[in-house]
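W.,

You were right to be curious about this one. When I first looked at the sequence I had no strong expectations either way, so I just let the prediction run and decided to look at it fresh. Below is the sequence, 296 residues in total, followed by the output.
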Amino acid sequence: MSKKRMAVLVAFLFVVSLIAAACGSNNNGSSGNSSPQASANQNPSESPSSSASEPVKEVTLKVGAAAVPHAEILEFIKPKLKEEGVNLEIEVLDDEGQLNPALQEKQIDANYFQHVPYLDSVKDEKGYDFVVTTKVHVEPIGFYSSKLKSKDEIKEGATIGIPNNPSNEYRALVLLQQQGLIKLKDGLTTYEATPKDIIDNPKKLKFVEADSATLPRSLPDLDGAIINTNLVLEAKIDPQSALFREDANSPYANVIVVRSGDENRDEIKKLNAALTTPEVKKFIEDKYGVAVVPAF
């Protein structure tokens, strides 16, 4: 081969190699339509849309409650709260009187067992700085008896059991007054009263002041007792068997209570919203009938 033809061949091969290099550069640039720096910063295991499918960050919310109906209502809303990123833990204590101390000591985030008159009767004495966030339901207290079939059978000198905590004792006596069985003195404005505040007792009724939880078991030894509905349900007593009960206008709605300042926590707001839906109202009405009345 002549030197002239050799030079032409070398030149041709050089041009071809330049063209091939340019094509390779264009292909690499079009694969991601991004700069080399952007590609380096992107985690190869992540797709651009992966963040949109990340689960909601879950927060645990501990609520102390009475067993019935409070804990059962909370169980009903657990799935809804789970969808909203709230893991609801329900703490049922054998002694409901420990639910306020547990809230004070931050063992729980909220409690659900009491009404406002009860809270008002204990918070100043105990120094509780609590806030009510929502009303959920009323449990109309009623008069129950294993011996009597109607109010008219209550005889002179009958022995009646009533709760011994201040707010529920007042509530029981007011119910007896509404039924015309006793009359309380005027001016009782603090939701507190005892049998000493009775000024007229035509049937000379005798009163046994006892811990609320013991009243269902004490019925055989009494002519009757005024019992909170949650205790009636726990004792498997038919709430329809009450000889008389509070009406739906009772001021004793059971409420959600939190420490002051916590009412603005997002998970508390979600709890309040979940407890006051039409679905919860229907659940309460279907499950408990006259024994538990929605307060929202």
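Here's what jumped out at me. The longest strand covers residues 130-138. And, maybe more interesting for your project: The radius of gyration is 35 Å.

Coffee later to discuss?

I.
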